[in-house]
Specification:
The chain is 26% helix and 29% strand. It has 360 residues and is of the alpha/beta class.
């Protein structure tokens, strides 16, 4: 860990003078992984990692949020498919008796080391579907969704099997299943709450919960939550108003656009695109509000002239569901000068528009 660059040839040569090559290679790999892990783990320099485990590990903010959601449930929580133990560590630190299970033997050893840091473990080397759960025990499960070709939504490739996952969700025990945010909605079973989670503007996962109110849910961390009301309203489609609202990604994926501002008059610019508009500002954690300064037809020559005449050198271009590469368009518009501007390209009821906007 004291090496300035654990990936360097010099570091490898120095360490191999003291220990066998295989041990040196492993230790240097861990040093590299620990440095990379510092963005996700406060205790990275004490932990062990695998490359896949670090890549797939949940962010700390999400791990802590999920552990809080188990707060009123059983004192025993099983983490079936615990990976390097990141989620199990958060559950243990929240006061639960954690029983972690991992199908890969080496990863189970890594998880055992990490769980010991929080006074938990060891992790069991076993298949999730083979362990015997106690009556009333809660379960957290993150099914493996990778094949040799990469990530998959073919449930036949899930591990543990999707039928096993669905069986847990139908059971009487409290169950949370973590999945990727791109989960196809036809895969969501009835009777669960599907909760899309956003952290720092990134939609990081959707989790299925079996003993919470059924329906979609959007969480913008640290603790802002939207759920579907008993009588959801339909949004109109109208022309651009005084303000443009760009909903958070978790709100978009959950379909809870109308709940961003339930007491305000908001509408869609296009029935298929998640840009909202209003004549009063909509400020809150579930979206970004922009004041619309100007509305123009989307015409490259016109935009290039406006950018030149106004001396715009710093230009932000935002768009959604329009076949435009913002980086390429920025090069075409040739921004130069001291002024700055934000342009939003939006499909509207009146055609595609270029909106000059200012964040509220």
């Amino acid at each position: 860990m004291a090496e300035a660059d654990p990936a360097s040839l010099g570091a490898a040569e120095r360490l191999r003078r003291a220990v066998p090559a295989e041990v040196a290679s492993w230790a240097l790999s861990q040093a590299q992984l620990r440095r990379k892990a510092r963005a996700k783990f406060p205790r990275a320099d004490e932990m062990l990692f695998t490359s896949d485990g670090l890549e797939q590990a949940t962010r700390e903010s999400v791990r802590l949020w999920r552990a809080r959601r188990f707060g009123s449930e059983s004192g025993v929580v099983w983490d079936l498919g615990c990976g390097i133990g990141a989620d199990a560590m958060a559950l243990a630190e929240a006061g639960f008796e954690v029983r972690a299970v991992e199908a890969d033997e080496v990863t189970a050893e890594v998880a055992t080391h990490n769980l010991a840091l929080v006074g938990a473990g060891p992790a069991m080397h076993a298949l999730a579907e083979e362990v015997e759960l106690g009556v009333g025990d809660a379960v957290f499960l993150d099914p493996a969704r990778r094949t040799a070709r990469g990530r998959t939504w073919n449930v036949a490739d899930f591990s543990p099997p999707w039928d096993f996952v669905l069986g847990l969700l139908r059971s009487d025990r409290f169950v949370c299943v973590k999945l990727g945010p791109g989960l196809p909605k036809p895969l969501i079973p009835r009777g669960v709450q599907a909760c899309w989670v956003s952290d720092g503007g990134d939609v990081v996962e959707v989790s299925l919960w079996n003993r919470l109110p059924e329906g979609p849910c959007a969480v913008v961390l640290p603790d802002r939550v939207l759920t579907r009301p008993q009588h959801p309203r339909e949004l109109d489609v109208r022309p651009v108003g005084r303000y443009l609202i760009e909903p958070d990604g978790a709100v978009i994926r959950s379909g809870l656009l109308a709940e961003i501002a339930p007491e305000q008059d908001i509408w869609l610019l296009d029935e298929h695109i998640a840009y909202l508009s209003a004549d009063e500002p909509v400020v809150g954690p579930f979206g970004t509000c922009f004041e619309v300064l100007e509305t123009h037809d989307f015409d490259r020559k016109l935009l290039r002239r406006l950018v030149r005449e106004r001396g715009i050198g710093t230009l932000e271009i935002k768009k959604r569901s329009i076949e435009v590469d913002p980086a390429q368009l920025r090069r075409e518009l040739k921004p130069k000068g001291k002024a700055s501007a934000t342009i939003v390209l939006a499909r509207t009821i009146d055609g595609t528009k270029a909106l000059f906007v200012r964040r509220v």
